[in-house]
Amino acid sequence: MKISVAVCTYNGERFLHQQIDSILGQSVQVDEVVICDDGSTDQTIRILSEYQDKFPGVVKIHINTENLRSVKNFEKAISLCTGDIIFLSDQDDVWHPDKVKDFLKVFEENPTIEVIASNAVTINEQGGTIEKNTIWDIFSLFKQHHIAFTYFEVINLVGNIATGANMALKRSIINDIIPFPANHYHHDEWIALVSSCKNTFYFIDDKKSCYRIHDQQQVGGIFFKGSEDIMMQRFNIHNNNVSFRILKRRILLLKDKKNKILSTQNYASNPIFARMLKSIQEYENHVKDHLKMTNFIQYQLFKLLYF
């Protein structure tokens, strides 16, 4: 089985050595590291060239002639990979030494799974651990409290909890995910939506890498400011006994998700979008019906302001 890593870089000189070293130092060696650089103006290309010289045939550098930005750059990097399993990587994190080994074990034990994401330790610029709740903790909390869930319901109806830097996928799903929908979806969100819709997504609760938080990040937003109880209320769609604030958030979020689908080009011809839209509409109707039955005054208020 051939293992690829798709890495996207852009002015990543600060932490690039740690990231690449942790990939090349895995207990199960990877076969290729495909790096797509998006027009770096710092020392990123020089650093990558040193790795390419040291690991010929393994480290492969592709420099974009125009700035693609993160989503389309990852689309390119994935397309250039030749492995059976493709890991996605940012330029500023640190992988645990057994990350590849542990992911491969899950793939081997669950042959129908096509995409795996995992939890991660959050670290600061100096590498110190940040002790905060993250959205990646939600499935572990659900299991601890015996709360039923499906990955597709959570990702489609609440929000994405699968971060690309913590993700690996099988070659078999590439035709289903590429090209990524333009403008509306991050690459990791789309991969998680497609695979969970197909029931081929899996989340590892253990932390398999160190995810770095710093002032030059392109994408973040993984911390949850509230308590674990509030986080479970927000993500547990089957809990109808929630605050006005969370109920309002649910309704507005569903509206936003529906509009995002409807404004995506050629959405009607994609069965994934059809499944997503059907699930959103059914849950939206459930929320409205339950509110109408249990609190008619609040229902009228929501109908006036938010429905």
From TrEMBL:
PANTHER family associated with the record: GLYCOSYLTRANSFERASE, GLYCOSYLTRANSFERASE TAGX-RELATED
Pfam short name (any one): Glycos_transf_2
SUPFAM superfamilies from the UniProt entry: Nucleotide-diphospho-sugar transferases
InterPro entries: Glyco_trans_2-like (IPR001173), Glycosyltransf_2 (IPR050834), Nucleotide-diphossugar_trans (IPR029044)
Occurrences of domain Glycosyltransferase 2-like (ranges): 4-177
Identification of the protein by name: Glycosyltransferase 2-like domain-containing protein
Source organism per UniProt: Chryseobacterium soli
